[in-house]
């Protein structure tokens, strides 16, 4: 997911057949191999509603043709986030979106390529992992103040809508999240010239 700056003006750009909102806010994507459960998807969506700021969400409803479980957003989500949020369920040019000036943050599964691409373009990182290796990456990023992990319940490892919304606000607009925004600027100097291959959705 890509998050845009809180104080920017909403703009539009094209991505394939879909119109992307390069709104002042953030972006979000969880990679081609990662798929949240329906329950997790619902909590993410409700968190975005509570977040209240613009966003662009690249959402894969299934991993491939053999995946029979198709994820669905709650009825009315598009209406409730109209004017500040866009959900793209087809391929989206991740690098082009990350390069847009109005995108200020990136909600990511902590995959290595996605992290590097975000840091190349000075995007603050909000981390939501689903697989073991992603958790290792996220811990390293957290220890170096390069990303903020969305808190999970220590008993069952679930996250909730409130933790999603609060984490996004912290990194994107709150004073205590300034450390992550400043670190993104610092890391651009290290990652800005690296090549990451083809653009990914």
TrEMBL record:
GO MF annotation terms: UDP-glycosyltransferase activity
Organism taxonomic ancestry: Eukaryota, Viridiplantae, Streptophyta, Embryophyta, Tracheophyta
Pfam hit, one: UDPGT
Name this protein carries in UniProt: Uncharacterized protein
Alphabetized UniProt keyword annotations: Glycosyltransferase, Transferase
Keyword Glycoprotein: no
Similarity comment: family membership: Belongs to the UDP-glycosyltransferase family.
Species whose genome carries this gene: Manihot esculenta
Keyword Transferase: yes
């Amino acid at each position: 997911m890509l998050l845009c700056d809180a104080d920017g003006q909403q703009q539009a750009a094209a991505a394939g057949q879909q119109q992307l909102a390069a709104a002042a806010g953030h972006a979000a994507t969880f990679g081609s191999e990662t798929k949240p459960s329906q329950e997790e998807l619902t909590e993410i969506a409700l968190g975005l509603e509570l977040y209240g700021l613009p966003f662009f969400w690249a959402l894969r409803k299934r991993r491939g043709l053999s995946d029979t479980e198709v994820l669905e957003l709650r009825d009315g989500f598009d209406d409730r986030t109209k004017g500040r949020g866009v959900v793209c369920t087809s391929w989206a040019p991740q690098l082009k979106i990350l390069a847009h000036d109005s995108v200020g943050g990136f909600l990511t599964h902590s995959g290595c390529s996605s992290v590097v691409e975000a840091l190349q373009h000075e995007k603050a990182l909000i981390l939501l992992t689903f697989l073991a290796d992603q958790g290792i990456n996220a811990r390293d990023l957290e220890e170096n103040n390069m990303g903020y992990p969305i808190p999970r319940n220590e008993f069952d490892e679930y996250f909730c809508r409130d933790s999603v919304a609060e984490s996004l606000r912290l990194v994107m607009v709150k004073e205590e999240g300034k450390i992550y925004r400043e670190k993104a600027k610092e890391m651009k100097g290290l990652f800005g010239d690296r090549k990451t291959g083809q653009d990914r959705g």
